Target: Transcription factor 19
Amino acid sequence: LEDHSLQGTLVNNVRLPRGHRLELSDGDLLTFGPEGPPGTSPSEFYFMFQQVRVKPQDFAAITIPLSRGETRAG
Model:
């Protein structure tokens, strides 16, 4: 991960310095936005990085986005 944002990127509630690179680890929590009070998340949205093993035939199921209301066959 490399931060180039205007508002900031936090990994596990620690601000990543602008332009700094960090290799994410399984379970890391990403949040975005200006820093709030200590121990709080700056955003109501967050992303949790998780490593998963995917069979080649299932790769499209996790990489091809669906339109709103569309369901995946199978």
